[in-house]
Amino acid sequence: MSEHQPTKTLDVRGEICPYPDVNSMTTLKQMAKGEILEILVDYPLSVERIPRSAKKSGHRVLAVDHLDGPNHRILVEAHGLR
Fold first, then answer.
1. CATH code assigned to 8-77
2. Who wins on pLDDT, 40 or 3?
3. Domain boundaries, the chain
4. Residue 32 — φ and ψ, nearest 5°?
5. What distance in Å separates the CA atoms of residue 57 and residue 40, rounded to the nearest whole number?
């Protein structure tokens, strides 16, 4: 597990594409530069798509941790507009 402390947690477990991805990117846009978003997902495609989308949008992926079963934790440092 990562040592980074999240500023905000977004729990999108139980949701399927495109909702986890869209909600994650929307939340990151609203965060100040340097804040850390913890995203909890259980949809396999989101484990791949969210980090890829975050990087494309100029954010920094700090960690992608497998928790248990289908559950993953993704930590992203926001480099948003604020």
1. 3.30.110.40
2. 40
3. 8-77
4. -75, 155
5. 19
